[in-house]
Design goal:
The chain has 306 residues and is mainly alpha-helical. The protein contains 13 helices and five strands. Helix 1 packs antiparallel against helix 2.
């Protein structure tokens, strides 16, 4: 297929529709992949102003693009994602019968450093829960923190929760994960207490005070509107600053904490995978490295001949 400045936008839009409708890709993935394609085509048209046959791209040309990304000092993880986006785009064109083969199949993805997730230890998570004040916003914050830790949910899943997604009587929440996949996750007594104090007594007061429309979202901001991802990050940042710990903690770190604490206390990997909503067990296995490092540290500190 001959790609030009005039037709490449149509093809990338077709790819975006394919990811959205058939693959149920998240908005985050969709945005990143389209940005990655825009970056590649800026490079492509700089070398080929009149366009070129996409399926005839040589391994040498593709390596020159990777060298260009390295010169721009992109992280290896970002380069790996850009290669993945181009490989997926080429696979889509081949599926549509527009190219005969995928020129990116033989491109090696840069080897990634395996970063271990940052998490809070048990004493730190207990300190975190001791900080919210016993007032309206403090009770909301406590419910947010307790639910993040009780379920290991993503921030996007937390802010998407509606009132009827939480069953305090039977102690579970219904989470909607990536690709609109639903999962039921149990919650403990402390999380239930925090949720009931907030949802039954505090949330109605906040909405009534500002005469906000009843939107059905479980978590609200200080003026009764829906709580956003950014607001949850601000809530966590607020208390982490008070704790003054030397760790880079985000709401996602609470998800890491949930998984690590479960494994440290004997949970099996498959159960943790299901609770987190991971499609592949390999994604969950990163937490076994965390627990292994912890065990190695304990061994070195406590074994007489370590």
């Amino acid at each position: 297929m001959f790609i030009t400045k005039e037709n490449h936008k149509k093809e990338t839009q077709g790819f975006a529709d394919f990811l959205n409708i058939e693959k149920n890709a998240s908005l985050h993935t969709l945005r990143n992949y389209l940005n990655d394609l825009d970056d590649f085509f800026a490079f492509f048209f700089n070398d080929n102003p009149a366009g070129a046959d996409f399926s005839a791209l040589s391994p040498l040309y593709i390596r020159s693009y990777l060298a260009f990304l390295n010169e721009k000092q992109y992280a290896r993880r970002t380069i790996a994602r850009k290669v993945s986006a181009l490989r997926s785009f080429s696979r889509y064109l081949a599926r549509e019968g527009k190219i005969a083969g995928n020129p990116f199949t033989k491109v090696k993805t840069p080897k990634l450093d395996r970063k271990l997730p940052v998490f809070l230890d048990f004493a730190e998570i207990e300190e975190l829960f001791s900080l919210p004040a016993d007032n309206e916003l403090g009770r909301r914050d406590m419910a947010v923190l307790e639910l993040l830790y009780a379920t290991g949910c993503r921030v996007s899943e937390l802010v998407a929760l509606r009132m009827d997604d939480v069953d305090c009587a039977n102690r579970y929440v219904l989470l909607q994960g990536k690709g609109d996949k639903e999962r039921i996750v149990p919650i403990g007594g402390k999380a239930v207490d925090a949720l009931e104090k907030y949802a039954i007594f505090t949330r109605p007061l906040i909405i009534a005070r500002y005469r906000a429309d009843e939107h059905g979202a479980l978590f609200v901001n200080s003026r009764g509107g829906k709580l956003t991802d950014r607001s949850v990050r601000r809530i966590v940042d607020k208390y982490i600053k008070i704790m003054a710990i030397n760790k880079k903690i985000s709401p996602h770190s609470v998800r890491h904490t949930f998984a690590t604490h479960l494994l440290n206390n004997g949970a099996d990997l498959r159960s943790v995978q299901e609770l987190l909503g991971h499609s592949n067990l390999s994604t969950t296995q990163i937490y076994t490295h965390v627990t292994s490092e912890r065990m190695a540290g304990v061994y070195k500190k406590t074994h007489p001949r370590a």
